């Protein structure tokens, strides 16, 4: 028979006090959780920057569409609430999350130790790497990204991205032009005013397919970057729900269907604005 021991006296009171304190803390965290506020409000507010194919971009009618958008829509459906997409400039997207302009940052953001000091990330939902687009005149001359690490070349990047950081690390000898948007940076390459554009594999693959012959594509990733959803710190309930949501949609096939739609097919290209 298993022996049972009953704590009495001061030890018992201390134990019950500790358990009661933990329960109170858990209840307080839940009351303050963004998830609780979302359910109470009846609306999930998702922050993103519309301009990153195929994660989020605008279609020809001006509507924001993409992989993240479909995931956010599915997420809201599981919560039983409405979805509100909050389009936000990239350089202010983390401050906007921290000041509660939205509940969840869902914008193809790479998980980095520096960003993790400011926000908490859910488990990665996709992984990408940096690649290079090159101008038309270099097609056939440049076949490996190491060849661009030269002072005679100009590399375009998007400000505040891991592509910008990687470019300055891997092409330290080159000159740089940094831009606010992907569209500005790749246009610089198409017009021959920059020799290369360092950015994420999905975007560069799609762009090269959209403008064949106008840009070249070095199909070699030279970083490995996990992408995750970001939330404000101190919210274990919301983090737990997001990680379990991801597990469920991976298990039931919903995730795979959306991944195939946006990453393995280009049928959607004709519905979006050219960049």
Automatic annotation (TrEMBL):
Keywords: Signal. Residues 43-266 form the Solute-binding protein family 3/N-terminal domain. The keyword Signal applies. The keyword Signal applies. CDD domains: PBP2_Dsm1740. It comes from Solimonas aquatica. PANTHER family: GLUTAMINE-BINDING PERIPLASMIC PROTEIN, MEMBRANE-BOUND LYTIC MUREIN TRANSGLYCOSYLASE F. GO terms for cellular component: membrane. Residues 43-265 form the Ionotropic glutamate receptor C-terminal domain. It comes from the Bacteria. The lineage of its organism: Bacteria, Pseudomonadati, Pseudomonadota, Gammaproteobacteria, Nevskiales. This is Polar amino acid transport system substrate-binding protein.
């Amino acid at each position: 028979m298993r022996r049972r021991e009953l704590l009495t006296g001061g030890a018992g009171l201390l134990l019950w006090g500790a358990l009661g304190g933990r329960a109170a803390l858990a209840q307080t965290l839940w009351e303050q959780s963004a998830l609780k506020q979302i359910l109470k409000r009846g609306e999930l507010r998702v922050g993103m920057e519309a301009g990153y194919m195929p994660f989020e971009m605008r279609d020809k009618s001006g509507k924001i569409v993409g992989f993240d958008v479909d995931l956010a829509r599915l997420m809201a459906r599981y919560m039983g609430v409405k979805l509100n997409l909050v389009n936000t400039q990239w350089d202010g997207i983390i401050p906007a999350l921290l000041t509660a302009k939205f509940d969840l940052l869902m914008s193809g953001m790479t998980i980095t130790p520096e960003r993790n000091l400011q926000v908490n990330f859910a488990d990665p939902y996709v992984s990408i790497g940096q690649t290079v687009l090159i101008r038309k005149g270099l097609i056939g001359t440049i076949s490996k990204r190491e060849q661009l690490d030269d002072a005679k070349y100009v590399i375009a990047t998007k400000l505040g991205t891991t592509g910008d950081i990687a470019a300055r690390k891997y092409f330290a000898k080159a000159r740089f032009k940094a831009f606010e948007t992907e569209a500005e940076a790749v246009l610089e390459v198409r017009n021959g005013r920059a020799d290369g554009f360092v950015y994420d594999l999905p975007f560069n693959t799609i762009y090269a397919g959209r403008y064949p012959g106008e840009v070249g594509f070095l199909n070699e990733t030279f970083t490995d970057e996990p992408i995750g959803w970001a939330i404000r710190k101190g919210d274990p309930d919301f983090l737990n729900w997001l990680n379990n949501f991801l597990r469920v949609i991976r298990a039931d096939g919903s995730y795979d269907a959306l991944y195939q739609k946006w990453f393995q097919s280009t049928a959607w290209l004709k519905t979006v604005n050219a960049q």
